């Protein structure tokens, strides 16, 4: 287990958790599951260590793996500025 230290925002001890992390690459949404991160239980700040960051960089550079990965469908909703004003 990695010691993520304390949150730089609120100084609360970070806790290890696995999350889904999304990236927009050339107008394509890529989601990586089970990314180990340090999460602040107080403010929600998330931190990855250098090793995890390097592995993520390798994953998103691997076009073959991205092309072969399963896909998901997500809703796309347009924020209407006029409707949002009260």
Low-confidence stretches: none
| SSE run | EEEHHH
- The name CATH uses for the topology of the domain at 15-73 is Ubiquitin-like (UB roll)
The overall pLDDT, averaged over residues, is: 93
Helix content: 25-40%
The whole-angstrom Rg is 17 Å
Strand content: 25-35%
Would you state the CATH class of the domain at 15-73?
A: Alpha Beta
Main sheet specs: 3 strands, antiparallel
Terminal-residue CA separation: 48 Å
Overall CATH architecture of the domain at 15-73: Roll
**Total helical elements:** 3
Description of the molecule:
It contains three helices and three strands. The protein has helices at residues 50-61, 63-68, 81-84, and strands at residues 15-25, 28-39, 46-47. A hairpin with a 6-residue loop joins strand 2 and strand 3. The chain has a three-stranded antiparallel β-sheet, with helices on one face. With 86 residues, the protein is of the alpha+beta class. The protein has a domain at 15-73: Ubiquitin-like (UB roll). It is 26% helix and 29% strand. It is flat and about 45 Å long. The mean pLDDT is 93.
Short overview:
With 86 residues, the chain is α+β, with helices and mostly antiparallel strands.
Topology:
Layout: E1 15-25, E2 28-39, E3 46-47, H1 50-61, H2 63-68, H3 81-84
Antiparallel strand pairs: 1-2, 2-3
